[in-house]
């Protein structure tokens, strides 16, 4: 007599998941909106690595279990898409670019854009990165206190404009940065209270947002329209987009080109600027790491600007940046949504359930990172990194929707940090501790004050033709 196979475990309803119930009708919108980071930290602490919150009439789920993060982003990625709230919020700003789109449109645009991010093309951008970084450092005055975040924002904007669009936007960098700050604040407010606001709405907040978007679009579209008019291939990313064709021989429409250009300008500079800002702040608190990084930079570069051939030798500099991304990731959270009813982690999630994945919470989980608040770049030696569970360290997401600009950002970070450490010592004002602000990306409130402190016995840095 054969044994009866055990019945599969029936998934539990989402309503049984640990979490916060919130108030009738509105759920926890108010508490969540006041301080998203603190809220989800408390949710994780009180209810575990998979927890639910009520957001108005719907359930949202915070996922801090690496195995489930890997399922969502890699092994079952096709069962999840970008949340409707994200599309509503980003539509007016970024349109329907690769960051906010899904389905066949995303697949087509992703395929058209991929050649622009091949390693060989990215490597060619190193000379611009080192040239512009050198120009910035030449302008610094010993003893001055600068806003490091502003400097990084202007630098990364200039780099992305030149490398991806063959344009110099130095004259527009300040207005672009201010407009970006306005857009960030307003879009986060829309996420916290996700009722679509039409373009024509006359409220003062909406007017500021529309003016800021128009300022950004003016800069971006000036570059795009010039390239459309000339049809010239300058070997940059924009040339790739203008001349790209799919299997049917069809290129990008004007609207598609606008959306992807806006997306690249935004994603290509803002998150990297904030990541470098946090890294410099953390180095200012950890002189032993600074000493090791300086020794490596001096030994590898010998007083010249870095080239692509040097990057694989700047091992500790890369570890420093990765550790900074663990502790203070600029992309502190991203979202997915269930495309259909599905089971995840033993729970039945209805179609349209919004999921929060937080690299910030994952990076501070003591199950995977001992003494998680300690800054320790040796966590990211190749041996130690291989020991991490899949899904435990995902600052660039993972799977098919991993950040297309990951290699670009990692190269830029190593070049900028190496050149900074050749000439200066990270120095925070006495007693300074930043207030963390979580908008579209995580950054210090009011910027990062840094004191320009030249290195003792720093080697003169020679320009490179990388």
Explain what this protein looks like in three dimensions.
This protein is α/β, with parallel strands linked by helices and 466 residues long. The protein has a single domain (64-451), classed as Orthogonal Bundle (Cytochrome p450). The chain is built from 19 helices and 13 strands. Strand 11 and strand 12 (442-444) form a beta hairpin. Helix 4 (84-94) packs antiparallel against helix 9 (173-192), helix 7 (126-138) runs parallel beside helix 19 (406-423) and helix 9 crosses helix 10. The model has no long low-confidence stretch (mean pLDDT 86).
What does the secondary structure layout of this molecule look like, with pairings?
Elements (H helix, E strand, L loop, with lengths): L11 E2 L5 E2 L8 H6 L1 H12 L2 E6 L2 E6 L2 H10 L4 E2 L2 H11 L8 H11 L5 H5 L2 H13 L6 E3 H18 L7 H20 L11 H27 L6 H7 L10 H14 L2 H15 L2 H15 L6 H4 L3 H13 L6 E5 L3 E3 L2 E3 L4 E4 L1 H5 L18 H6 L18 H18 L12 E3 L3 E3 L4 E3 L15
Parallel strand pairs: 1-9, 2-3, 4-10
Antiparallel strand pairs: 3-4, 5-7, 6-13, 7-10, 8-9, 11-12
Number of strands: 13
Number of domains: 1
Total helical elements? 19
Roughly what is the average pLDDT, rounded to an integer? 86
Amino- and carboxy-terminal Cα gap: 75 Å
The proportion of residues forming helix, as a percent range, comes to 40-55%
- CATH C-level name: Mainly Alpha
Strand order of the largest sheet: 2-3-4-10-7-5
CATH topology: Cytochrome p450
Q: Which residue ranges are poorly predicted, with pLDDT under 50 across at least 5 consecutive positions?
A: none
The CATH architecture name reads: Orthogonal Bundle
From the helix content, strand content and strand pairing, which structural class follows? Answer: alpha/beta
Q: Which strand-content bin applies to the residues?
A: 5-15%
Largest sheet: 6 strands, mixed
